[in-house]
Design brief:
The strands form 5 sheets. A 6-stranded mixed sheet has the order 1-2-6-3-7-17, with helices on both faces. Strands 11-13-9-14 form a 4-stranded antiparallel sheet. Strands 4-5-18 form a 3-stranded antiparallel sheet. Strand 4 and strand 5 form a beta hairpin. It folds into 2 domains: about 280 residues, Zn peptidases (Aminopeptidase, 3-Layer(aba) Sandwich); about 130 residues, 2-Layer Sandwich (Alpha-Beta Plaits), CATH 3.30.70. The protein is of the alpha+beta class. Helix content is about 30%, strand content about 20%. The chain binds zinc ion. Zinc ion binds next to loops.
């Protein structure tokens, strides 16, 4: 299979630690209220310099319409060879609760064989995976490469999607490696082939001209918060499964399942607390709509008065499985909320963000090459997984380049606890996935255009 490629990747792991330590030390949270914009700029420049050094040309920062910077670069294909887009992002989630971190979030720290730090997996671990794969191949790069490293993925401000709309040809490639996910478990090579979309709304309930003294008026006075609670409760059946009038609730998942005990442990479900809904865990996660109340505006406990509230509102999020149109889902959710109002309470529903779900076609040359690479690097075939979250860029790329194969992979496996305190990466995953990537580029080139 390889002329020492695996050995070269293994020999680059010291370098990978050094790179990841430098990159994690830059707190590139793309929110100016939390970190100065210079931090993101610094991370972008670090990324640009690193990819220029591995031989990409014309590496540059471009400003995207949300004011963040994406790093672009490329290397033209050898004659007749395909081109592969390599995607990742350099911005990170905020550390959240500093006190919950065992070691400082912006200082890469090794513990029990894992490397801890904010962004160590999501997505700076994938930046380093790309760098390691390209370094291992050196000048022997058999495909054309386009690079895009996004600067505001975690903020949902859509910078790169807007840039793509303005520069429709710039990210085009035969295969797109969207490296912002990971394996089903350490050691199990996995492509994520299904992503849920979403449809959010804000629902406001009004019942009174103003708040009333609960002693003088409570009882007959219609309570806006009580009305909102009834409305929100109507979104679930007796088992806690999502029930939205007009939306199917019985989809089933056909890829790798998700063991219930494993799910309980990954999600940290407390002992004795049941899971909600029915069907398999994978059905509920990846094949059916799922509602969550993200926030409620009403009086907080501290500072509340003896009053019947006149108004209450909630932000409601619906995760939408592949095959369901988020526009249709948002309209169904809106109609359901309005129809569920008790006592003639006045209900207004404002639509918010929407994102399309995504399903990859897995029968092309790129998936075949990836499966071969997985067998060589891990000694087992490629598995397919769904993911509950959305990657809006994925849907935008799929719509823009319907002929291109899209592969979601990377180093973010469940133990990485991405977005949570004590995020970490398994260095073995960086090593093996970098090898998968390097082998993939070779096998894909060999398959021809
Ligand atoms: Zn990410």
């Amino acid at each position: 299979m390889d002329d020492g490629l695996a050995g070269r990747v293994a020999g680059l792991m010291g370098r990978a630690w050094g790179d990841l330590a430098e990159l994690v030390a830059i707190p590139s949270v793309a929110d100016p209220r939390q970190q100065p914009v210079e931090r993101c700029r610094e991370a972008a420049e670090w990324v640009a310099a690193a990819f220029a050094e591995v031989g990409l040309r014309d590496v540059r920062l471009v400003e995207t319409p949300d004011g963040s910077f994406a790093v672009l670069g490329h290397r033209p294909p050898p004659p007749g060879a395909p081109t592969v887009l390599l995607y990742c992002h350099y911005d990170v989630q905020p550390p959240l609760d500093d006190a919950a971190w065992v070691s400082p979030p912006f200082e890469l720290t090794e513990r029990e064989g894992r490397w801890f730090g904010r962004g160590a997996a999501d997505c700076k671990g994938n930046v380093v995976m790309h760098l390691t794969a390209l370094r291992a191949l050196g000048d022997d790069l058999p495909v054309g490469v386009k690079l895009v490293v996004e600067g505001s993925e975690e903020q949902g401000t859509g910078g790169l999607e807007a840039y793509l709309a303005e520069h429709p040809d710039e990210l085009h490639a035969d295969a797109l490696l969207i490296c912002d996910t990971g394996n089903a478990a350490v050691g199990v090579p996995t492509a994520t082939v299904s992503l849920r979309g979403m449809a959010n709304v804000v629902v406001t309930v009004r019942t009174l001209e103003s708040d009333l003294h609960s002693g003088m008026f409570g009882g007959p006075a219609p309570d806006a918060l009580a009305a909102l609670i009834r409305i929100l409760d109507s979104l679930r059946d007796a088992h806690g499964g999502t029930r939205i009038e007009g939306l199917p609730a019985d989809g089933s998942w056909e890829g790798v399942g998700y063991d219930e005990q494993q799910f309980r442990s990954d999600a940290g479900v407390l002992d004795g607390v049941g899971l909600t809904g029915s069907g398999t865990v994978a059905d509920r996660l990846w094949a059916r709509p799922a509602v969550t109340v993200l926030g409620i505006d009403c009086a907080p406990v501290v500072g509340s008065a003896s009053a019947v509230p006149a108004e209450a509102r909630a932000r409601v999020s619906l995760r939408v499985p592949p095959g369901m149109d988020p526009e249709v889902a948002q309209r169904a959710l809106t109609a359901h909320l309005v129809a569920a109002a008790p006592w003639g309470a006045r209900v207004a529903v404002e639509p918010e963000a929407k994102g399309s779900p995504f399903r990859a076609a897995t029968d092309g040359k790129a998936y075949a090459a990836l499966d071969l690479a997985a067998r060589e690097a891990y000694g087992r075939p490629l598995s397919f997984l769904g993911q509950g979250g959305s990657i809006p860029l994925c849907s935008a790329l799929a719509a823009q380049y319907p002929e291109s194969e899209i592969i979601l992979m990377g180093v973010e496996e469940p133990r990485s606890l991405i977005h949570a305190p004590n995020e970490s990466v398994d260095p073995g995953e960086i090593e093996h996935m970098a090898l998968v990537e390097a082998l993939f580029l070779r096998h894909y080139a060999a398959a021809g255009r």
